Amino acid sequence: xxxxxxxxxxxALIFAFxxxxxxxxxxxxxxxxFKLSNxxxxxxxxxxxxxSKACPLGHFAFKMASGAASVVGPRxxxxxxxxxxxxxxxxxxGINIALVNGRTGDVVKTNFFDMWAGDVAPFIKFLKEIExxxxxxxxxxxxxxxxxxxxxxxxxxxLGSTLITxxxxxxxxxxxxxxxxxxxxxxxxxxxNSADTNKFEGWPEVLEMEGCVPQRQD
Length: 218
What we know:
Pfam families: ILEI. The chain has helices spanning 4-40, 120-128, 150-157, and strands spanning 59-65, 75-78, 81-84, 94-101, 107-113, 134-141, 172-178, 187-191, 208-214.
């Protein structure tokens, strides 16, 4: 007969063996899950200019922001290239403009025009010299409107703007249009300078806009 003590030892050995097997399988499963998660997990996809989603083929990705009061200049990005910003030291008070080749997406020219203490004539000359097929990106900084006259507003409206007629002292405004555009642009935002709604003392809040501009095909 097998003694009771022997039976207990055998049972203990079997239990220990089964426990070891169970723990081994648990460790193996954890290890496999860890390796699988490393394979499956990917970094968040970053789109051009930090857009929330990628643009379809035949479109240029853009993201832009107006200036903040008279302190922080506007920012314009196209196809992951920073065209204008305070960091690039190519922005200024008034209306900031970036001209882009509608076929290639290459920057043609950037400039800014002081609409508070400057003269509107250079701005009008600049607008008249824009070639057909050019993408025009504009952003306000501080005051974009005091020196604007009807001729200047009409030229901007011809680029696809519907809000330029209402642009006033220290309003914030961002716009993307084009020379030779046949319709009004869907890429435009405007906020009035109002003591009741201003985020900053004397200035409205910053405007931000992103989107996909169709590439010129003809």
